[in-house]
Amino acid sequence: GFASAKWFRSVEVVPFVLQYRVAYNCHHHPAMLEDIEMAIKYIRENAEDYGIDINKVGAIGYSAGGHLVTMAGVYGGSRNELEKIGVPAEVSLRPNFVMPIYPVVTMQDDICHIWSRRSFLGHREYTQELKDEYSMELNIPDDMVPTYILACRDDPVVIFENSVRLEKSLVEKNIPHRFAVYEKGG
Length: 186
What we know:
Layout: H1 2-10, H2 31-45, H3 47-50, E1 58-62, H4 64-75, H5 79-84, E2 97-101, H6 114-121, H7 128-133, E3 147-152, H8 161-172, E4 177-182
Parallel strand pairs: 1-2, 2-3, 3-4
Helix pairs in contact: 2-4
């Protein structure tokens, strides 16, 4: 994220890099979503200090981070969860737009990135209900935030079809989006 932040800064965008909790340190869902929501809350609450328009807060994520930013666009700021941690109703924890880059999208067995699913959900039984709940292509809301997807067909880690499924769901819901596809790039 630091290279991206440096580039965004060069074009006068105020970047922040979120180092969120991950499975390597024994954290699983919902830790990551809580981290991105609290980062968005912090940015919005301190927007004046940073010269930020609170209506132009976006999130970019790569690979598993692409799943996280998409999830923030889908589930971010769920009132039930926010009430549990005492966040006022007027504070939005949902980004205004998301940029999933070569994202992990689905938890379905056919093209799931197995390591990401295990890291995200932990070592438990993956019921179909659980896989469906965290397969972002199955959960795009009617008010999903604008989305910019970028993926390469030759990605050796995350199967390109993840991005295709996300884009198809965005089209079906008529969500403003762009899908940048490159033949090569890894």
